Amino acid sequence: MSPTPITEIPTLVQQVRDGFTDGLLRTRERRETQLRALRRFLVDHEDELVDALRSDLGKPPIEAYTTEIGFTIGEIDHTLDHLEEWMAPQKVKVPLTLRPGSARIEPQPLGTALVIAPWNYPLQLVLAPLVAAVSAGNTVVLKPSEVAPATAALLHQRLRDFVDPRIVAVVTGGVAETTALLEERFDHVFYTGNGNVGRVVMRAAAEHLTPVTLELGGKSPAIVTAPTDVTVAARRIAWGKFVNAGQTCVAPDYVLVDRQLEDAFVAALGTAIVSSYGSDPAASPDYARIVNERHHDRLTALLDGDGYEAVAHGGQHDRSRRYIAPTVLRGVTPGATVMQEEIFGPILPVLAVDGPDAAIEFVNAREKPLALYAFTDDEGVQQRIVDRTSAGGITINHTLLHLAVNDLPFGGVGPSGMGAYHGKAGFDVFTHHKPVLTKRLKPDPALMYPPYGRWKQRVLRRAL
Length: 464
Ligand code: NAD
Fold this sequence. Notes:
The chain is built from 15 helices and 20 strands. The protein is an alpha/beta fold. The chain folds into 2 domains: 6-216 and 414-436, 3-Layer(aba) Sandwich (Aldehyde Dehydrogenase, Chain A, domain 1), CATH 3.40.605; 221-410, 3-Layer(aba) Sandwich (Aldehyde Dehydrogenase, Chain A, domain 2). It has a 7-stranded mixed beta sheet, sandwiched between helices. A 6-stranded mixed beta sheet has the order 5-4-3-6-7-18, sandwiched between helices. Strands 1-2-20 form a 3-stranded antiparallel beta sheet. Strand 4 (139-143), helix 6 (149-158) and strand 5 (168-170) form a beta-alpha-beta unit. Nicotinamide-adenine-dinucleotide binds at residues 116-120, 125, 143, 145-147, 174-175, 178-179, 192-194, 197, 200, 215-217, 249, 342, 344, 370, 412, 417.
């Protein structure tokens, strides 16, 4: 599919900007109509979407449904259930000295938003921000990732049959097209992807003083500490790591395990991998592929790097099929090649540490991650980890699932991102909560106006 011609970009942006000015999403009913249309797009084109996701990432059909199509439908349904409540103005109390009068907060759309998405969940990460933006009454330009071309093409070709093109425009292409888009003035820019491009986006937005949401990545740790069940912990960590072949922003990047649990835990990881994907995961219908050869090469170079004792499981790869087996590395040192950057692939380093406090110290010595996972039955330790570490979000005794709770804001902190969405938090991202104070014209006491004689000064000082 050819990219959107750069000369057409200003016209497309103007078109959705006019859609906003013309009030196409002013009422709740209009927003709901577009959200229902988006839902129909997902239902009617489910098979083609599954095919596109398979072509881009070898995504297994059930993953395509649960993590992309069904996930987005869930986000739409939750929004439809709550939109009336989210849009309702909130009354607030007026201080005695300002009465008579009434005050309220009116949620108001920001205007026209730009959503820039990555390739790893190429449907969900375009459409979940879109649901949030439309629910809040914004028109939107979508920029899907060129690295997942089949999904981008489908969005470009089919979305306009469902959603009004004056409300949502899809621009396809890569760096050049995104750069051209970022030169335009938007009222919000919502970017998901790596931190280097996040900086580019934020710099470009600064030119227009446009607010940004940055959904970035990082090395998300999993801590496994006694008392725990290593079999369950291993199965849940393996699931969270190897879904989408590890190309998940909130995948557990590495594991910090109590030294005395290391052997049992590593063995349990092997068992979990075999029970999920069989002894030859290349033949499993439930295991995805690496998105392209460049990423395949980046990941195999990590395996060729140093700083680990052994490949405890997996390690096989095949560039022609963009396949890397679910892989566990043991005896990993903090200085290992694999510990320097977000892995973003099916390689799981396991590091032995001396208990939860050492794990907390390890995490705090590094950049704030997008997610953190803690496996322990000790509620005191659970709380200690929550209190003493900083991460975008935490799931205790499982992986990934905090992002599936509609009412939990999803986002990073520090280098893993700024701003959060999903559910009401998403509505809020694209909303200006406008304060409105209404006074009557009468009475109009002279007290607050100059000249301020002694008496007025005394009363005014007391009144505040
Ligand atoms: P990517 O290469 O698809 O890039 C993301 C978007 O940025 C694309 O639309 C691309 O066209 C655009 N882009 C790339 N280079 C650009 C440039 N120089 N100027 C302007 N635009 C440019 O995706 P990626 O960045 O490889 O995605 C993987 C990263 O995203 C990982 O770090 C992952 O953790 C993170 N991520 C975060 C979340 C989250 O929700 N926080 C979700 C998924 C992925």
